[in-house]
Amino acid sequence: MLINKKKLRSLVREVLLQEELTKSDKKEIERIARKQAKKEIDKVVGNDLAKTIQKEVEKTLKNKATKKEMGDITKAIVKKLYKQLAVTSPQVIDRIKV
To answer: Domain containing 39: what range?
Structure first.
């Protein structure tokens, strides 16, 4: 009985697919995946995450539309705070020095 290469390969693949992974195999796969993910993150973010985040925030805050939105949100918050303070405790407003 002579087995050709294709049949032999298919038999080997079947046996390999049926074999369960051991704990050490799973840990090794996890370690390799973490290492590759860390490399990709370092490639995208760079070595210093804080500097990268700071650059992105600065870039976003330089946008005029962002400044206008922040101004509108701040105005709304101050108005609501003023209304709440005026209703709940009028003496707080009286103590504010202008």
So the answer is: 23-62
Q: Is the dihedral of CA 58, 64, 69, 70 positive or negative?
A: positive
Confirm whether pTM is higher than 0.70.
no
Q: Specify the number of domains making up the chain.
A: 2
Between vectors from CA 92 to CA 89 and to CA 93, what angle results, nearest 5°? 105
Could you give the CA distance from residue 56 to residue 63 in angstroms, rounded to a whole number?
11
**One domain for residues 57 and 68:** no
Domain presence at residue 15:
no
Dump pLDDT digits (tens) for 35-92: 998 888 888 777 777 788 888 888 888 888 888 888 889 898 888 888 887 777 767 6
Q: Please check whether residue 76 is in contact with residue 82, taking contact to mean a CB–CB distance below 8 angstroms.
A: no
